[in-house]
Amino acid sequence: xxxxxxxxxxAKSFFSEIEVVTPTPREISTTVLEETREIKPREYFDSIVxxxxxxxxxxxxxxxxxxxxxxxxxxxELQGTMSIMGEYVAYIIDKGKRRKRNxxxxxxxxYISLEYDLEIxxxxxxxxxxxxxxxxxxxxxxxxxxxxxxxxxxxxxxxIVEMMSQGDFLVSLSGIKKEIPDIDSVxxxxxxxxxxxxxxxxxxxxxxxxxxxxxSILIALGINxxxxxxxxxxxxxxxxxxxVSALKGIEIGKKLKVRIIRxxxxxxxxxxxxx
Length: 275
Known about the structure:
Pdz3 Domain; four-stranded antiparallel beta sheet; alpha+beta; 7 helices; SH3 type barrels; elongated
């Protein structure tokens, strides 16, 4: 018993000689302070969502939406329409593209343009209806083209002769036969004379029209005063009789080609014959 008390007394004497120092907050490892922090559930969730759970500030990353590309405006210009086997197609020029000499391209109903997110819904004579972005609808309209050369006959021949584009015509054979029973009388009603090459007077270039009645169907067909008819279907024309002969035997579905000289330039008129 005396021994136990002696050990306790010695221990008290030993520990009483040790100086106990309480560390101040400044002496605590800064590493511990930096790594020990309170994480709120919402902040932790946001950090995970933003793939940055080790962000010292636990500030969610700002989600930056990609810039939307500007919508390309539709810069299409309707040049004209044509009926092929009862279905219309449209001739379009894309003014937004630098196409060589503004060459038109052809579209039909159901045509889709990925570049403009566009679908052709309907095509009628000189009219195109389209849809963009799945909902927005619009239309392209072209006024009826002027008669070739800028003239119109006093008589209305719509439904018989339809000008599709400059120099291209759609002609109803039944309509012509109903309106003009005798094509010979139409040719004979004009005044014309053989036209020679000024440089070679002995070389006949064709038949020059000097006067044409103002109500003649020939005006609707693109023929007018001072025009020179060179050939019809490859047959040289230097008289009215030869013109009548070349026009015989016109058939439905055939394309009749007439070469003329207008304003000193060679041109070709094309007539598509329909029923």
